[in-house]
Amino acid sequence: MSTSLAAHTYSEVDVAVDGGTLHAGVWEPADGAAEAPTVLAVHGITATHRAWGWMAPALPGVRVVAPDLRGRGRSNALPGPYGMARHADDVAALAAHLGLDDVVVAGHSMGGFVAVVLAHRHPGLVRSLVLVDGGLPLALPAGVDPDAAMAAVLGPAAQRLAMTFSDTDAYRAFWQAHPAFAGHWGEDLGAYFDYDLEPADDAYRSSARLEAMTGDQRELFTGESLLLALGALAVPAAFLRAPAGLLADAPLYPADQVREWAGRLPTLRVVEVPDVNHYTIVMTPAGAAAVAREVTAHVAATP
Fold this sequence. Notes:
Number of domains: 1
Radius of gyration: 18 Å
InterPro entries: AB_hydrolase_1, AB_hydrolase_fold, AB_hydrolase_sf
Strand order of the largest sheet: 1-2-3-5-4-6-7-10-11
Organism: Georgenia thermotolerans
GO molecular function, one term: hydrolase activity
Number of strands: 11
GO cellular component, one term: membrane
Keywords: Hydrolase
Strand content: 15-25%
Number of helices: 10
Protein backbone atom coordinates (compact mmCIF):
# COMPACT_ATOMS: atom_id res chain seq x y z
CA MET A 1 0.00 0.00 0.00
CA SER A 2 1.23 3.49 -0.77
CA THR A 3 -0.32 6.86 -0.05
CA SER A 4 0.83 10.42 -0.67
CA LEU A 5 1.18 13.02 2.05
CA ALA A 6 2.00 16.68 1.58
CA ALA A 7 5.73 16.21 2.08
CA HIS A 8 6.07 12.42 2.17
CA THR A 9 5.17 9.25 0.34
CA TYR A 10 4.08 6.45 2.67
CA SER A 11 4.77 2.79 1.96
CA GLU A 12 5.10 -0.45 3.90
CA VAL A 13 7.89 -3.00 4.04
CA ASP A 14 8.33 -6.52 5.45
CA VAL A 15 11.67 -7.67 6.85
CA ALA A 16 12.81 -11.13 7.89
CA VAL A 17 13.62 -11.37 11.61
CA ASP A 18 14.01 -14.22 14.06
CA GLY A 19 10.79 -16.23 13.93
CA GLY A 20 9.12 -14.63 10.92
CA THR A 21 8.44 -11.23 9.37
CA LEU A 22 8.53 -7.76 10.89
CA HIS A 23 6.23 -5.20 9.27
CA ALA A 24 7.08 -1.49 9.09
CA GLY A 25 5.93 1.79 7.63
CA VAL A 26 8.20 4.24 5.81
CA TRP A 27 7.43 7.91 5.26
CA GLU A 28 9.78 8.93 2.45
CA PRO A 29 10.39 12.62 1.61
CA ALA A 30 8.32 13.38 -1.48
CA ASP A 31 11.28 15.10 -3.16
CA GLY A 32 13.02 11.72 -3.23
CA ALA A 33 16.29 13.02 -1.77
CA ALA A 34 18.58 10.00 -1.52
CA GLU A 35 20.57 11.49 1.36
CA ALA A 36 17.56 12.43 3.49
CA PRO A 37 18.25 11.93 7.20
CA THR A 38 16.35 9.05 8.75
CA VAL A 39 14.58 8.76 12.09
CA LEU A 40 13.73 5.36 13.51
CA ALA A 41 10.48 5.64 15.47
CA VAL A 42 9.30 2.98 17.94
CA HIS A 43 5.71 2.85 19.23
CA GLY A 44 4.22 1.97 22.62
CA ILE A 45 3.12 -1.23 24.30
CA THR A 46 -0.25 -1.73 22.55
CA ALA A 47 0.20 0.66 19.61
CA THR A 48 1.30 0.23 15.99
CA HIS A 49 3.73 2.05 13.70
CA ARG A 50 0.93 4.36 12.57
CA ALA A 51 1.13 6.20 15.88
CA TRP A 52 3.88 8.19 14.11
CA GLY A 53 1.53 9.29 11.33
CA TRP A 54 1.09 12.66 13.01
CA MET A 55 4.82 13.32 13.45
CA ALA A 56 6.07 12.32 10.01
CA PRO A 57 4.33 15.15 8.07
CA ALA A 58 5.85 17.62 10.53
CA LEU A 59 9.36 16.52 9.46
CA PRO A 60 9.77 17.70 5.85
CA GLY A 61 12.93 16.34 4.28
CA VAL A 62 13.25 13.59 6.90
CA ARG A 63 12.61 9.89 6.33
CA VAL A 64 10.67 8.19 9.14
CA VAL A 65 10.92 4.43 9.53
CA ALA A 66 8.65 2.80 12.11
CA PRO A 67 8.05 -0.90 12.81
CA ASP A 68 5.04 -2.73 14.15
CA LEU A 69 6.76 -4.34 17.10
CA ARG A 70 6.70 -8.10 17.61
CA GLY A 71 3.23 -9.11 18.79
CA ARG A 72 1.52 -5.95 17.48
CA GLY A 73 -0.03 -4.70 14.26
CA ARG A 74 1.00 -6.65 11.16
CA SER A 75 3.92 -8.15 13.13
CA ASN A 76 1.60 -9.88 15.60
CA ALA A 77 2.30 -13.35 14.20
CA LEU A 78 5.90 -13.12 15.41
CA PRO A 79 6.32 -15.42 18.41
CA GLY A 80 7.72 -14.72 21.84
CA PRO A 81 9.70 -14.46 23.90
CA TYR A 82 9.25 -10.72 23.93
CA GLY A 83 11.13 -8.13 26.00
CA MET A 84 13.12 -5.00 25.27
CA ALA A 85 16.23 -6.80 24.04
CA ARG A 86 14.20 -8.87 21.55
CA HIS A 87 12.43 -5.77 20.26
CA ALA A 88 15.73 -3.88 20.01
CA ASP A 89 17.23 -6.66 17.91
CA ASP A 90 14.16 -6.64 15.64
CA VAL A 91 14.53 -2.88 15.11
CA ALA A 92 18.23 -3.36 14.39
CA ALA A 93 17.36 -5.99 11.75
CA LEU A 94 14.97 -3.52 10.12
CA ALA A 95 17.68 -0.85 10.09
CA ALA A 96 20.20 -3.26 8.59
CA HIS A 97 17.74 -4.25 5.88
CA LEU A 98 17.33 -0.58 4.93
CA GLY A 99 21.05 0.19 5.21
CA LEU A 100 20.66 2.58 8.16
CA ASP A 101 23.21 3.55 10.76
CA ASP A 102 24.01 6.53 12.99
CA VAL A 103 20.37 7.63 13.15
CA VAL A 104 18.15 9.49 15.60
CA VAL A 105 15.79 7.10 17.37
CA ALA A 106 12.48 8.27 18.80
CA GLY A 107 10.50 6.06 21.16
CA HIS A 108 7.07 6.63 22.68
CA SER A 109 6.07 4.94 25.94
CA MET A 110 7.47 1.37 25.81
CA GLY A 111 9.15 2.36 22.56
CA GLY A 112 11.39 4.60 24.64
CA PHE A 113 12.54 1.54 26.59
CA VAL A 114 13.25 -0.27 23.34
CA ALA A 115 15.19 2.77 22.07
CA VAL A 116 17.43 2.92 25.15
CA VAL A 117 18.19 -0.80 24.95
CA LEU A 118 18.79 -0.48 21.21
CA ALA A 119 21.44 2.18 21.87
CA HIS A 120 23.15 -0.22 24.28
CA ARG A 121 22.96 -3.38 22.19
CA HIS A 122 23.63 -1.73 18.82
CA PRO A 123 25.68 1.38 19.61
CA GLY A 124 26.77 2.08 16.04
CA LEU A 125 23.16 2.42 14.98
CA VAL A 126 22.00 5.13 17.39
CA ARG A 127 23.20 8.73 17.18
CA SER A 128 20.80 10.18 19.78
CA LEU A 129 17.49 9.46 21.48
CA VAL A 130 14.17 11.26 21.75
CA LEU A 131 12.25 9.55 24.55
CA VAL A 132 8.57 10.51 24.48
CA ASP A 133 7.02 9.86 27.90
CA GLY A 134 8.86 6.57 28.12
CA GLY A 135 12.27 4.98 28.47
CA LEU A 136 12.79 5.53 32.21
CA PRO A 137 11.64 2.89 34.71
CA LEU A 138 8.16 3.50 36.03
CA ALA A 139 8.10 4.27 39.75
CA LEU A 140 7.44 1.25 41.98
CA PRO A 141 6.38 2.45 45.46
CA ALA A 142 8.09 0.77 48.38
CA GLY A 143 6.37 -2.44 49.38
CA VAL A 144 4.18 -2.60 46.28
CA ASP A 145 4.30 -5.82 44.29
CA PRO A 146 5.30 -5.26 40.64
CA ASP A 147 2.28 -7.23 39.43
CA ALA A 148 -0.05 -4.99 41.44
CA ALA A 149 1.63 -1.89 40.03
CA MET A 150 1.30 -3.24 36.49
CA ALA A 151 -2.38 -3.98 37.02
CA ALA A 152 -2.97 -0.43 38.28
CA VAL A 153 -1.24 1.26 35.33
CA LEU A 154 -1.88 -1.14 32.45
CA GLY A 155 -5.03 -2.93 33.58
CA PRO A 156 -7.39 -0.98 31.29
CA ALA A 157 -5.16 -1.76 28.30
CA ALA A 158 -5.13 -5.46 29.17
CA GLN A 159 -8.92 -5.45 29.42
CA ARG A 160 -9.21 -3.87 25.97
CA LEU A 161 -6.98 -6.50 24.39
CA ALA A 162 -9.34 -9.18 25.69
CA MET A 163 -12.39 -7.46 24.20
CA THR A 164 -14.02 -8.03 20.83
CA PHE A 165 -15.94 -5.48 18.76
CA SER A 166 -18.71 -6.00 16.24
CA ASP A 167 -17.16 -3.77 13.58
CA THR A 168 -14.85 -0.83 13.01
CA ASP A 169 -17.53 1.62 14.09
CA ALA A 170 -17.80 -0.07 17.47
CA TYR A 171 -14.03 0.13 17.96
CA ARG A 172 -14.01 3.76 16.92
CA ALA A 173 -16.84 4.45 19.39
CA PHE A 174 -14.82 2.83 22.18
CA TRP A 175 -11.89 5.13 21.56
CA GLN A 176 -14.01 8.19 20.88
CA ALA A 177 -15.35 7.85 24.44
CA HIS A 178 -11.85 7.40 25.89
CA PRO A 179 -10.94 10.30 28.21
CA ALA A 180 -7.52 10.70 26.58
CA PHE A 181 -9.13 11.80 23.30
CA ALA A 182 -11.86 14.09 24.62
CA GLY A 183 -11.97 17.10 22.33
CA HIS A 184 -9.43 15.58 19.93
CA TRP A 185 -11.43 13.09 17.87
CA GLY A 186 -11.11 13.21 14.09
CA GLU A 187 -10.88 10.99 11.04
CA ASP A 188 -7.11 10.67 11.51
CA LEU A 189 -7.68 8.90 14.82
CA GLY A 190 -10.45 6.79 13.31
CA ALA A 191 -8.13 5.62 10.54
CA TYR A 192 -5.42 4.82 13.08
CA PHE A 193 -7.76 2.57 15.06
CA ASP A 194 -9.10 0.94 11.89
CA TYR A 195 -5.56 -0.26 11.17
CA ASP A 196 -5.31 -1.71 14.67
CA LEU A 197 -8.31 -4.03 14.16
CA GLU A 198 -8.18 -7.59 12.88
CA PRO A 199 -10.90 -10.23 12.39
CA ALA A 200 -11.62 -12.54 15.33
CA ASP A 201 -14.21 -15.21 14.49
CA ASP A 202 -17.37 -13.20 13.76
CA ALA A 203 -16.06 -10.00 15.35
CA TYR A 204 -12.91 -7.88 15.57
CA ARG A 205 -10.20 -7.29 18.15
CA SER A 206 -7.07 -5.24 18.58
CA SER A 207 -4.11 -6.62 16.67
CA ALA A 208 -1.93 -6.34 19.79
CA ARG A 209 -1.49 -9.72 21.45
CA LEU A 210 -2.24 -9.88 25.16
CA GLU A 211 0.65 -12.29 25.66
CA ALA A 212 3.01 -9.77 24.06
CA MET A 213 1.87 -7.05 26.43
CA THR A 214 2.18 -9.27 29.48
CA GLY A 215 5.55 -10.49 28.25
CA ASP A 216 6.83 -6.93 28.07
CA GLN A 217 5.16 -5.09 30.91
CA ARG A 218 7.30 -6.22 33.84
CA GLU A 219 10.39 -4.60 32.30
CA LEU A 220 8.64 -1.24 32.48
CA PHE A 221 8.92 -1.43 36.26
CA THR A 222 11.78 -3.77 37.14
CA GLY A 223 14.16 -2.55 34.45
CA GLU A 224 16.16 -5.67 33.67
CA SER A 225 17.93 -4.87 30.38
CA LEU A 226 16.84 -1.21 30.65
CA LEU A 227 18.79 -0.46 33.84
CA LEU A 228 21.96 -1.88 32.31
CA ALA A 229 21.40 0.22 29.19
CA LEU A 230 20.70 3.41 31.17
CA GLY A 231 23.83 2.84 33.22
CA ALA A 232 25.84 2.77 30.00
CA LEU A 233 23.96 5.58 28.22
CA ALA A 234 26.49 7.59 26.23
CA VAL A 235 24.46 9.29 23.49
CA PRO A 236 22.54 12.57 23.80
CA ALA A 237 18.97 11.95 24.91
CA ALA A 238 15.90 14.11 25.45
CA PHE A 239 12.98 13.04 27.62
CA LEU A 240 9.67 14.67 26.62
CA ARG A 241 7.28 14.51 29.58
CA ALA A 242 3.49 14.59 29.31
CA PRO A 243 1.75 16.21 32.30
CA ALA A 244 -1.19 13.77 32.12
CA GLY A 245 -1.36 9.99 31.84
CA LEU A 246 -3.14 7.25 29.92
CA LEU A 247 -6.59 8.27 31.12
CA ALA A 248 -5.83 12.00 30.99
CA ASP A 249 -5.26 11.77 34.75
CA ALA A 250 -2.10 11.63 36.86
CA PRO A 251 1.09 11.65 34.77
CA LEU A 252 2.84 8.41 34.01
CA TYR A 253 6.06 10.12 35.13
CA PRO A 254 5.90 12.55 38.06
CA ALA A 255 8.11 15.56 37.46
CA ASP A 256 10.35 14.85 40.47
CA GLN A 257 11.03 11.31 39.26
CA VAL A 258 12.16 12.59 35.87
CA ARG A 259 14.35 15.26 37.48
CA GLU A 260 15.98 12.57 39.62
CA TRP A 261 16.84 10.51 36.55
CA ALA A 262 18.15 13.58 34.74
CA GLY A 263 20.49 14.16 37.67
CA ARG A 264 21.82 10.62 37.34
CA LEU A 265 22.23 10.59 33.55
CA PRO A 266 24.62 13.28 32.27
CA THR A 267 23.45 13.03 28.65
CA LEU A 268 19.71 13.29 29.46
CA ARG A 269 17.81 16.55 28.98
CA VAL A 270 14.17 17.00 30.04
CA VAL A 271 11.56 18.81 27.94
CA GLU A 272 8.12 19.53 29.41
CA VAL A 273 5.35 19.37 26.80
CA PRO A 274 2.28 21.30 28.03
CA ASP A 275 -1.38 20.44 27.48
CA VAL A 276 -0.93 16.82 26.38
CA ASN A 277 -1.49 13.38 27.86
CA HIS A 278 0.34 10.11 27.31
CA TYR A 279 -1.55 9.47 24.06
CA THR A 280 -1.97 12.95 22.62
CA ILE A 281 1.73 13.76 22.92
CA VAL A 282 2.11 11.74 19.71
CA MET A 283 -1.42 11.20 18.38
CA THR A 284 -2.54 14.80 17.83
CA PRO A 285 -1.08 17.49 15.56
CA ALA A 286 -0.10 19.71 18.50
CA GLY A 287 1.61 16.96 20.46
CA ALA A 288 3.35 15.53 17.40
CA ALA A 289 4.57 19.01 16.47
CA ALA A 290 6.33 19.29 19.83
CA VAL A 291 7.96 15.89 19.28
CA ALA A 292 8.91 16.88 15.73
CA ARG A 293 10.61 20.05 16.96
CA GLU A 294 12.81 17.99 19.25
CA VAL A 295 13.53 15.40 16.56
CA THR A 296 14.42 18.22 14.13
CA ALA A 297 16.97 19.57 16.60
CA HIS A 298 18.53 16.12 16.96
CA VAL A 299 18.63 15.61 13.21
CA ALA A 300 20.27 19.01 12.75
CA ALA A 301 22.93 18.04 15.29
CA THR A 302 23.76 14.88 13.35
CA PRO A 303 26.92 15.18 11.22
